Amino acid sequence: MSFKNYPMVSRVIFGRGSFNQLSDVLQPKRLNTKAPFVYFVDDVFKGNAWLTSRIPLSYDDEICYISADEEPKTSQVDELVEQIILKYKEKPSGIIGIGGGTILDLAKAVSIMLTNPGEAKDYQGWDLVVNPAIYHVGIPTISGTGAEVSRTTVLTGPDKKLGINSDHTPFDQVILDPELTKDVPKAQWFFTGMDCYIHCVESLTGTYLNAFSQSYGEKAFELCKEIFLEDGLSENDSQDKLMMASWHGGMSIAYSQVGVAHAMSYGLSYLLGTKHGIGNCIVFNQLEEFYPDGVALFKTMMKKHDIQLPQGICKDLTDTELNIMIDVSIGLEPLWENALGKNWKKTITRQKLYNLYKKM
Ligand code: NAD
Ligand code: ZN
Fold this sequence. Notes:
Helices cover 45% and strands 11% of the residues. It is of the alpha/beta class.
């Protein structure tokens, strides 16, 4: 098929306090009393009764607290799948991810790997998943990545950082309750929010742009400008709007691609474990050449919110290490092609990436 037949999240609830409805949403989806709902919850919420007391638990349902200190790995997905298989006689009724991009991606990946043979690393790529996933629900607690809406779950494997992109990846149900984001620390709010902003810039300036992507990207871009540059938005409005910006930013790249910042930030993440939001910011800060207007506005936003980026994270790396990052980055061909067109190899050389990384 030459046109992508794109699956979307089939059900979504939006609204402050909508998290209270989780029990009503899940009840009809319980397969039987031996098939539990397994909740993956960011461990930042451990002991947080405001959130956890509203997670409905019956029969063998279970909450697994998971740290988001490191981004998801294929080996971690395999371990979680094994634990679930060993523990329960039946496959779960559903996997529910409650957290940021890290936890949402783990929930997606585990729900896929519970019904597909082999290891998670075998499915990194495009359309390799054969069997439909277990019913899975995404409940974001921080806004920006678009992981709640996307067709991918980004995983670091033994030899690459690459998503499981498939028709079975998107959530069956998403609950967008902006109130859940109220305690996100300011710097993290900015970094993950900038992931959304950068999705928009990369999509809107890319060669893959089309009216579908543009319509979502422009809306998300407008919302980001309002949230990060204007004064006078109430906290509630700001949380509501950033949650929708994330959604639209994710939709915008569904039918297009990200670009240079993502390609280079994947390199940082692979070698140094730099997290996605901050990694994108570190890279984007050096990309005036590719995105002059987008970077200028980004710098204004950083200044307004008094955000400091780490400096010199690559300056002491060896050439071997830099080459690993360059390999990861340059291998993401669709991202470069979206950013610079079919002849991107004429502008993007290893030396060019080397020089850029050295500045970060
Ligand atoms: P994250 O999930 O790692 O969360 C960032 C930090 O915020 C963590 O320390 C977490 O504990 C904390 N946090 C989350 N919610 C909180 C809350 N309500 N209160 C207090 N603290 C809270 O970061 P992220 O930026 O949301 O996600 C990054 C991940 O998303 C990366 O692994 C990246 O690869 C992935 N990603 C996926 C997609 C996709 O389409 N699947 C797109 C972009 C990024
Ligand atoms: Zn991103």
